[in-house]
UniProtKB/TrEMBL annotation:
Protein name per UniProt: Phosphoinositide 3-kinase regulatory subunit 6
An annotated GO BP: G protein-coupled receptor signaling pathway
InterPro entries: PIK3R5/6
Membrane-spanning ranges: none
Region named Disordered: 308-345, 362-383
GO molecular function: 1-phosphatidylinositol-3-kinase regulator activity
Taxonomic superkingdom: Eukaryota
Amino acid sequence: MESDLLRSVHAILLELDGHHTASQFNRGMLRWTLHKKIERNPANNSTLVKIVVKELERAERSDNKLHIIPLLHTLMYAILQAVYIPDDLYKRVYEFCKRLLTLPQPYCTVGLSHAIRVKSERLTPGVLYQRMVLSEQNIKNEQYQYLEKVFVFADPALLSMEMSAALSSEIESASTCRSHMSYMCDVIVHTMQAALGDSCDAPTLECMLKAKGQDTIELCFREVVATVEVCAEEAGGNHSLYTGRLQQLYTTIVSSANPGKELAKFTRSAPSSEVLSSDSASFEMPDPVSDLTSSELLRLSILSTDSGIERDLPPSELPAVSEEPSAGRSEQEQGRLFRKGGIKMKPSVSDGMALLQDTLEETGASPPGKLQRRAGSHGLPGGRQQKLYTARIVVLGDDRIVGRLAKAYYSLRKRDARRPFLTQKLNLQIYYIPVTHEEYSFTKENTPTAGSDLCQLAAYLGRVDPWYENNIRSLCQMIPKLAKMKSCSGKSSEANPFLTDVISYYVRMGLQPVYFCIYSVKMAFTCLTKEHVEDVFVTQLQIDIPECMGFSGNCGAMMTISYKKASLSNREVEKGLSLRTSGLVMRAIPTCETEDLDCLTVSFSEGSKVKAGVDGKIRTCNIKIRTLERKPFTVCLDQDYRRIFKNVASIEVSPCLEPGYVMQKMQNSRFSVSDQEDIGLTKYMSKVLPLPINTFAGIIQ
């Protein structure tokens, strides 16, 4: 078996180096096949860890950094599901991860994250797997209360019927195939094997658990979770005490004639309210109103953020003088709620601080205006205060759905800035899987030659993160093929759910975000009575003159353009020009590896008459365009045909401001003479709002 695993690892590395050009559309299948092999026989995880550590040390000696992060993720995924790993192997892995701290980003960040997890697993075997199952399956318990939920979004307008049906059926079948009780048994068996090693007879333990009732399994599960968490919370916990308690529990389960009675004696006493629940809705956010007492509800009704509602008040608190209902009113009209002038509450100091802390943690404190794109987690893993709930948002589609995602994300942040709720409760992680119908092929250099214009963002992520390229961007063409094969065969994919396995791997291991600037566009129209429109885009904005589409030469409109020229020195120079053009395109995503600047690249259409000294391209982050003639133009955002604006006279494009920064700026304006000056904490906050999309490595230079 060791030789088979070694061949699989070498095949993955060859694929990573680009030596399998004939199988570009099957990228990711080798990794999936390897994980399926160790999933069928978890005992092989230890062998795989030994193989991968040798390959990592070989890559370190040869300075082959391309292999380091993919091998690290393969290693960590094996450790996560391994039933038993010798201590000397743990030490070897930990020492390698520590050596990565001397390397630049992203190797030091990924190495530090994995070193912390390996150390936790070494001191408390089984803790990583247990926490993963508890959070992902939303199993309520008192010891570890962190819960996760994965939300998969796909735009039906961008996917075919057969693809939508295949995706929904596979995801639904994966979410309902097992009960919470089976996951509890998995946690018990895995923890016993990880801690006790060969002294744990896993088949016998599984049979004994299956023969017991639900109450007995819950008692055993609760005791295992409590033992693991107590040891994990104590820095350098007593390993012998940990294994001794699990050994005692294991003996009680497999040898007791009356397991329920014996477990009741063994486990610590707990009130009946602590019995575990398998309610599938356990991830739901707690309702801040339902948790209040009756007296608090009355207070909330009066001091609401909306206004007081007269019908909510008890009779004793109703005003003495009230308007008599007219005789002509019906009972239904009299029963309506009457709005009274209430007290509009301002965000509290704690709410403001929560939003401020969230802004500093998520966007970092890098100074504005820098053209280098930011990536990777800021700060030490575990250094920030963890939130109990994590929502992992997975979007499937092309650049059009990413644009709609950016718009929804911006609206959410603006609402949360006014009254923070999700900011305090929820940790939001965003993932992107490209899907398109268009065919494209690869050249010898593995660059797409056609059909990838709608997946510019995914192409960029594939360039900066080779492991994303192999495992996620390859799905761009594979998902439609799999959907077509499934619709033709009519077979269920429950036995080998490829897509759900890939999504699970992505959300578990893809923890390094790449930040994309969200741009705001303000549009004025030729009709003066029509209100201005504000929208956002994240990949591309295109301007066309309807009369001149498909023509060149003298056709076009005279436009005046004013912009701030972007430069690496961070010196913004105001410039302006006038030209006749039939259209232009603003791209926010770099199209080549040699130029990775976080700004807009403005390209004019062929035949545009540009003044001398302008090369036909502009790099900027702030630009204003208006037509000098009575020729309106059309604006299309993120290549989405549903986001086209006609009869536009002028536009203004600039990065979206971070709502947390705007709120803090408004508060500081009361104490500052100049509105342009950043004082207090605003000096350390990011001014612009980025869209973070998680990858495996961030950006590899």
